Amino acid sequence: xxxxxxxxxxxxxxxxxxxxxxxxxxxxxxxxxxxxxxxxxxxxxxxxxxxxxxxxxxxxxxxxxxxxxxxxxxxxxxxxxxxxxxxxxxxxxxxxxxxxxxxxxxxxxxxxxxxxxxxxxxxxxxxxxxxxxxxxxxxxxxxxxxxxxxxxxxxxxxxxxxxxxxxxxxxxxxxxxxxxxxxxxxxxxxxxxxxxxxxxxxxxxxxxxxxxxxxxxxxxxxxxxxxxxxxxxxxxxxxxxxxxxxxxxxxxxxxxxxxxxxxxxxxxxxxxxxxxxxxxxxxxxx
Length: 286
Known about the structure:
This protein is α/β, with parallel strands linked by helices. It has 10 helices and 10 strands. It has a single domain (4-137, 217-285), classed as Alpha/Beta hydrolase fold, catalytic domain (Rossmann fold, 3-Layer(aba) Sandwich). The longest helix has 14 residues, at 82-95. The mean pLDDT is 94. Keywords: Hydrolase. Residues 30-268 form the AB hydrolase-1 domain.
């Protein structure tokens, strides 16, 4: 059994951030998990339990950014920015007295790591980028926009799991029925007898309103700063957000970067499936 503790830590704007701790602190650097745009700590629950269990026994910290999961919604939606969320991570580290950590960043969480590489590189021991890099494909961004439009309330977890499988099944042929059910539990909260998306809808509105006809600026300068640390990139086999060409350029800039392709998965891969936990643990132990 792994010791699990939930805490709520205030950020600089007075919002309570939900943090879930797995295992006990050790002399080794802890592992901090940062979820994607509309995701929360439950995205990492299975992986965190595995990493915190013997023989690895990592101390794992998983964080729901403001407006996600059980963290407070921000009354000012303009503050939902990667820069503010990066500052929130540093605040949580300070509250938990963590000087340096190994990070696992999924999608938006990986973009937060790019910001931290520029603003607080000394806090990063190493990093796992889950289906994210310094250049994002417009096709993948538009896919996320469309998915947000279809995130409707559901009457129960079974219906929610079926809806997720209908929306993403083509990209995730690897997932079994149980995986879809777990995803539904992570993505929805009960509210007034219905299951609603577990994030502030203002975040979805903000992203849906983005003009993607103009390509977003690439973050190669930030990646080069991040690449001074040991890196692993995990790319979903069917990802439309992170291209193989971008991964090749990342590897050219950081030749020692570990590269893993999550078979039968799209954006963003579930990290507790197949050999991914083993490969992540081996990277963290290097």
